[in-house]
Amino acid sequence: MTDLHPPHLKAFEASVLTGDATAEDLETLKKQSSVYVYEAPVRVWHWVNALVITVLVVTGYLIGKPLPSMQIAEATHQFVMGYIRFAHFAAGMILTVGFFGRIYWAFVGNTHARQMFTLPVTNRRWWYELIYELRWYMFMVKEPKKYVGHNPMAHAAMFFFMTLGISFMMITGWALYAEGAGQGSLPDTAMGWLLGWIGNSQILHMLHRFGMWSIVIFVLIHVYAALREDIMSRQSTVSTMLSGHRTFKDDRPD
Amino acid sequence: MTQIETFYEVMRKQGITRRSFMKYCALTASALGLGPAFVPKIAHAMETKPRTPVIWVSGLECTCCSESFIRGAHPLAKDVVLSMISLDYNHTLMASAGHAAEAALEETIQKYKGNYILAVEGNPPLNEDGMFCIVGGKPFVEQLKHAAKDAKAIISWGACASYGCVQAAHPNPTRATPVHKVITDKPIIKVPGCPPIAEVMTGVITYMLTFDRLPELDRQGRPAMFYGQRIHDKCYRRPHFDAGQFVEHWDDDNARKGYCLYKMGCKGPTTYNACSTVRWNEGTSFPIQSGHGCIGCSEDGFWDQGSFYDRVTNLNVFGIEANADKLGMGAAGAVGGAIAVHAAVSALKRAQKKQEKVEG
Question: Which family does it belong to (chain B) (predicted)?
Fold first, then answer.
């Protein structure tokens, strides 16, 4: 029997053995250079959202502007628009459940889980940092600052497009769903008041459609910024939403 | 008048037999969505209750509500309801004219103080002290307020009285104002439509006269029994919608086959009315059945929702015609373009930085 316990190795000998580690690398390895930011429920919520929002946008667009007419079978046996609408409603319900789950997690999760629900608008320093980040995006400063959670610009975008944007889409979406569910139904009891208040269902539809386009614009910016930050900023972005760990590329302050 | 007649007495005077009267009660019960148990209740109420007078005033309107009303599908229902209404004052139907007509209105108000129903067709314009609509030498808004003061309840006939309709469409030069924004201290029932369906009108008025109360209203103050569902929910072309079979052009084969008119801008999915169930002209047809989409005439501000042939509302932003899709797609395209440029500049900057490092 060979002893599987390794002999006492020198520090980082394992990495040295692979043959590629430089002395500089080993210096970095000595430090803990990552923070656990996104806990599992937050990550699951993010990817579920990514999926259902994609479904919602595609099906939502097709509900407003349907596919060309198809002649697959008699209308009785053909359900193209029906399936599209079903996918939209099902995804909307998952989105709603997920959002409430996310609110719950803001209370029981770590401090990073609360960030997107509030915006520190009364803090002058936050505004300064927001403009600093904006200048980084306008190529006016050489280097961005380090952030554990969202940077101020991402924070603002999250708050307006996700926290408020998704709320708006859920509220208008459920009010529209209540129309089909009928008066006295649960969705109608919960959200039917909105149509009564707005007055015309067509305006409600239009508002929901504007919301869709704002989400599309957010997704474009979000994906671009996440990739760009991953490459050009001083911390990880894309992998953070997979592992939950934010790793940092340097140990300089700010 | 010493003794106000009951509905039943009025009907018998009109030569309606007891048998026809009972038929009418059954018809009314089913029209109102009530069970058979309500038939004797309606009969009893009509035999014992003194009839409720109705005053019918007209503001800015086109008389399509009156025209619809007198074309009630069931002749008996029409006759009966018309005989119930005090026709002392209704511009279209009254016999008298001029001072005699105004005196008749005044007499009815005095005689049935607090006991009559005020039916309003059209609406009052408020600009220039209401001078855009003069009735009997005075602004209509004054007549409306005067008649409403002692009314038991108010019926807002049609889109005009309920929401304002075409005269209140943007920019609304006369400031035509729906009744509920002028009279705020009376129960008001809205019966929108341009015009409302005759059976809906007679149904509402019969309910109010029979049960002495407003029918159940929805959140917008419309009778829930007629405005509880969308045209789309009960449309006979709905299976084609669910199948994804649409009319693509007015003259295509799909139009001939009677496919869904959604893509032609049909407002059925956003319009609450009874057209697809009650239909028009004695149940003969309704717009969608005759091959044209619904224009949403019973919805608030239907003139201001863009084209009758577009699903997505047009917006007049800075004088440019656009809708949610054009605007959204334009914005998304602009953002996409900006991202591409930004990414290119970012890559260049990064390359420059590396170069500096190497050289430095």
Answer: Belongs to the [NiFe]/[NiFeSe] hydrogenase small subunit family.
Compute the mean pLDDT over every residue in chain B, rounded to the nearest whole number.
87
B1: pLDDT strictly greater than 50: no
Q: Are A69 and B218 inside 8 Å of each other by CB?
A: no
pLDDT digits (tens, 9 = 90+) for B272-286: 999 999 899 888 899
Name chain A contacts of B230, Cβ cutoff 8 Å.
179, 201
Helix, strand or coil, per DSSP, at residue B56: strand
Q: Return the amino acid letter for B307.
A: S
Give the single-character DSSP code of A160. I
Query: Does residue A22 form part of some domain?
Result: no
pLDDT of B161 > 60? The answer is yes
Q: For A62, name the nearest residue in chain B, comparing CA atoms only.
A: B244
Binding-site positions of B for [4Fe-4S] cluster read 62, 65, 160, 194, 232, 235, 260, 266
In a domain, A6, yes or no: no
In terms of Cβ atoms closer than 10 Å to its own Cβ (0-12, 13-18, 19+), residue A145 is: middle
Whether residue A12 lies inside any domain: the answer is: no
Q: 10 Å Cβ neighbour count for B3?
A: 7
pLDDT in tens, B134-160: 998 899 999 999 999 999 999 999 999
Q: Is the ipTM of this complex over 0.90?
A: no
Q: Contact, B176 vs B168, CB < 8 A?
A: yes
**B95 band by pLDDT with thresholds 50, 70 and 90:** confident
CB atoms within 10 A of CB A253: 6
Give the residue numbers spanning the domain of A67: 35-247
**E-only strand ranges, chain B:** 54-58, 116-121, 134-135, 138-139, 151-157, 188-191, 314-317, 320-323
Q: Which residues of B touch A203 (CB under 8 A)?
A: 301, 305, 313
B296: left (phi over 0), alpha (psi -120 to 50) or beta: left
Most confident region among B195-204, B234-243, B308-317 by mean pLDDT:
B234-243
What is the DSSP pairing of strand A245-247 with strand A34-36?
A: antiparallel
Nearest chain B residue to A228 by CA distance is B343
- Residue B105 has what pLDDT? 87
State the angle between helix axes of B38-48 and B18-31 in degrees (0 to 180), rounded to the nearest 10.
120
Q: Which residues partner with A248 through β-bridges?
A: A235
Cβ-proximal residues to A65 (8 Å cutoff; 6+ apart), any chain: B311, B325
Residue B316 has pLDDT above 70, yes or no: no
* Residue among A200, A204, A218, A222 with most chain B CBs within 10 A, to mutate: A200
Chain B interface, mutation test: which of A69, A85, A153, most B Cβ atoms within 10 Å? A69
Chain A hits for B218, CB-CB cut-off 8 Å, are 183, 196
* Tokens standing for residue B56: 């019918």
**Whether the Cβ atoms of residue B156 and residue B179 lie closer than 8 Å to each other:** yes
Asked if B328 lies within 8 A of A210 by C-beta distance, the reply is yes
Answer whether residue A160 is part of any domain: yes
Query: What is the number of structural domains in chain A?
Result: 1
For residues A57 and A125, the answer to whether their CB atoms sit within 8 Å is no
The enclosing domain of A64 has a CATH number of 1.20.950.20
Higher pLDDT, B132 or B6: B132
